[in-house]
Design a protein that fits this description.
Length: 286
Amino acid sequence: MSHIHWYPGHIAKAERALKEKLNLVDVILEVLDARIPKSSSYGDTKALFKDKPRIVLLNKCDLSDDTLNLKWKKRIEEKEGVVCLLTSNGSQKDTNLIINKILEVSKPITEKMVAKGLLPRPVRVMVAGMPNVGKSSTINRLIKKAKTKTGARAGVTRQQQWVRVHEKIELLDTPGIIPMAQPNQEAALKLACVNSIGENAYDNEHVARELLRLLIGKYEKNVRAYYKLEDEENGAQPEITIENIALRRNWIVKDGMPDVTRCSQFILSNFRDGKIGKITLDEYEY
């Protein structure tokens, strides 16, 4: 398997800065990609966030498997003892739900301040997660206008800033967190598939081939239907490969060879946009 180099320097710096600011924060709003709920998590969140109250958002749930969304939500709530919400970047429906859950989770903190005779202040919330899981888009949805910089590339948000999203809530928008070391190349591969790793860290053809390998296991029908790789006249099914997909689209380069470079990017874009279907790459585990 081709190695994925995936730890940009600015993210290491952001992680150090995030740890320094933890003392300023009351609640953690952890954003995960619902297509890879395990691979997009920090891992040892208890060590990172200590005893801070935490709400987990399984974001981009409109792109992931509906049945597995519910299973992962239940697993996270039961195993980690936190509130878990299913959210989508393109939906305003969850805005009030998120705000109400933040206020609910932070109520003991507010009550403690009042008991000490302190004037109530806005609850301070840290938004954390891997690059491109939808942190800035989540904040933009909460404040109903784009005050934070967003984009489709990994690591667009580079600086931390406080954003007032409610009269009782302030959010600290932070860059994505990636562990100092990630020996698990399967997790790195899945992060590349959902575009949470900078494109310079991997080869598109390698990632596209590995993505097809993952999809064939549980979503072969989706792949065959979308790329028209169903039964041929002799009853045989063509192999699901980048080459065959390119040939189906008549993408040919020199000497009649399939255009693998163009088709690799095409396959990755199709998956990221949800065109192949609602897919979860992480195997469910309880």
